[in-house]
Amino acid sequence: MVRSGTLILNVAARLLLPLQLMFSLFLLLRGHDEPGGGFIAGLVAAGAFALYLFAHGRRAMSEMLKVSPRDLVGMGLLLGVVSTLPAWWNGDPFFTSQWWTIPIIDFKASTPLIFDIGVYLVVLGSVLTAITALVKTDHEDNTRG
Amino acid sequence: MQLAVLGGFVLAGFAPLLHHWFGARTPLVMALLPASMALWLLGQWPAIVAGEVLLLEWAWVPGLDITLTFLIDGLALLFALLITVIGALVLIYAGEYLRGHRDLPRFLVIITAFMMSMLGLVLADNLVTLFVFWELTSVTSYLLIGFDHTNLAARKAALQGLLVTAGGGLALLAGLAMLGVAGDSWSLVELNAQGDLLRNHELYTPLLICVLLGAFTKSAQFPFHFWLPNAMAAPTPVSAYLHSATMVKAGVYLLARLHPSLGGTDVWVITLSLVGALTMATGAFLAIQHTNIKKLLAYSTIMALGTLTMLLGIGTEGALVAFAAFLLAHSLYKGALFMVAGILDHETGTKDVTAMGGLRRVMPVTAVVAFVAALSLAGLPPMLGFLGKELMFESVLEASDYRFVILLLAFTAAFLTLAVAAIVAMRPFLGALRETPKTPHEAPLGMLAGPALLAVLSLLAGLAPGLLDGLVGATAASLGATDSNVHLSLWHGFNLPLLLSLLSLALGTLAFRHWDRLRARLARLEPVMSRGPEAGYEAMMRGLVSVAGWQTRMLQNGYIRNYLVMTLLVLLGLVGHAMFIRHTPRFDLALDVHFHEAVVAGLMVAGAVAACVMPSRLAAVAAVGVMGFTVALTFVLFSAPDLAITQLLVETLTVILLVLVLFRLPRFATLSTPLERLRDLVIATLTGGMITLMMLSVLAGERLPRISDYMVANSQPLGHGHNIVNVILVDFRALDTLGEMFVLALAAIGVYAMLRFHAEEYDTRRSSALPEQHDG
Q1: Any A CB within 8 A of B646 CB
Q2: Which of B21, B96, B220, B299 could cross-link to B228 by cystine, CB 3.0-4.6 Å?
Q3: Which of A33, A116, A140 minimises the CB distance to B730?
């Protein structure tokens, strides 16, 4: 049921994927001051990959993604936990946010940003895990039956 | 000292590596740790005896007032010395006993960890720390009883020991918490300084009950005594160490430790002295029915633990001195006897004393050690055990309540114990040499060193009891005795205790002579005995399993509709209770509703109704989608862009997921009766109404300051962000978000596992059915 096979959807998915991903990164990075953030950005990215999956099938999407969605979940959790460590190193209470300014590009890096990237990865990974698990089995049914 | 104890845990972890380097000599190397600790403790002896109390301060969790401070007074010194000295000997002994055993490294890991836990327990000054070490001893004991993990009986005994002691541990946790609250301190030193306040506190009775439950289960007091004999499934070094000299005394230690703060009241005196005396008699009575040497010793250990509890209950100055002396005497002779039992088992291949005989010819040294140690167990001069028993009789005669009952029980226990001692020391060694599964030889030096040293110490201490005056006096002093000048001596003059001893000698000898006939008589009591506390434990376990099965079938039946009904009903009950019974709600019904808002709300309701009545699934999903999008629209109307975006995206993905799921579902079928649907309708309406009322009542008045004001004010200065929602998510409430991340990850793993396993099942069914199907 997954592959639609229509030319319009195929081409549109191919063109929209990079745009959607860029948009999700944009939402992720501006989230601290404007509407956005890791959760929303993760959902947008998941939607992008879902569209690609419907157009080109599961295998093509996996090749595009390169890593297993479940590994994304793991990496996200790891980042979430790692973002607590700098505070511990500085002797502050658990989860106190730490801010640094990267000099040349004048970018404000912080532990909440690392944490937000963790949220992004967990959301993206979890949704994709569910979708691919659902699609995978149907897909195999189709090739078999 | 704290470093040494914590280092000991680390050393335990390195035991396998050490075993790789030192091979069979590893136990000797590891025994250096407890031995050096024992030397350090001996160095403190003069100061402690002079009346000093050492406090080694060490902060652990200062925010919660938890310290790792060690308290060394007479009682702690006595226990710590027993733990380290017997610990070192047991390690050496175990090296021989388990020589070449595949799991020797594992054994060394656990027993060293146990040793350190026990040391931490007797040295801790903080109630929380004490409890942590207390539980550690339960866990390590579980692992040691179940050391032979391929043996069903061993596993069962281990579980039984763990459940009984850890169950008591839970009660103890409650008791210690109440103690900490009542005394407003977690430090034992401070608590013991305000005994009068604690004894008159309103929490005194409940906290005492909890603490006693913890102590009685740990120290195998009646009616919790049954786990100890079963724990004999452990290797003998473990029995010698944990289940006679150290761990089972932890409960007694705790009672002794808390004696100055909790002791002396009527409840304390009557409970402890009666339970103690009853345990004494039960232990001794059950002991003589067994022929397994380890069981004999285990039951006599129960008798000794009862004696200690009883002495604490009597609580006079003399009883406290007797407590210290008896404790020391018991640890020395019982450790030695267990090690002898291990030697016999190891050399003959049987634990049954009736199957052994004449071993004195082949194992003369063991025979002498056994004889000396048993002399102390029997309470005969010139051993330390005699001294302990005389003091015990003297204390019983001082008892204020139920003196006659206690005396009778104590006397019974004394003469039966004498018979047990005679059985252990005579049966295996005298008479003609008997055929045993293995041909016995004299034990190797490593196995003899421990029991021999302990037996010699028992003898020396009996001959020159003056050496112990200081230690026993200091121990009694830390139990609350005012006069720490104690003079121990073997000869107390011709008095009533001596008469009782002579009488028990006569009766004990008689019981020993007719032991076989006595046992046969007692075997007839079997139907009564099998209804003891252990049967209760078994029944409880069976009941637990069936209740667990029943409630799993009821609550975890796998139908999401039932889960939902259950969850909503609980929600209804709790929220309704809080709203209508605990508070009187006010509702703000004068709402200012615009026309477009009413339209959106109407759409939402229409979507919900449509979702319920649609005959097609796809249409129902679409209707649910309409509901979701109107919710998003509401967020837009009330200017919450973040929530609106999130809601839109979630709705989109939900529809995608639902559509994917729909392909996997069977056709529509009527699974519920009209009555059930009516029930669901009622629950749904009630829940919706309840939430609406709650919202209205929230709008009606602000009872508490709004938390959002803080967020709005501090988002920029503290969180460096203008988007308050995001600052809350990733900074102010980041811990909650982290928790949700884990929930999300777990849900994804759950979906993956459920679908994959289900699909595999499905595929195998399909592939087996394939040949008959020809369509594509």
Answers
A1: yes
A2: B220
A3: A116
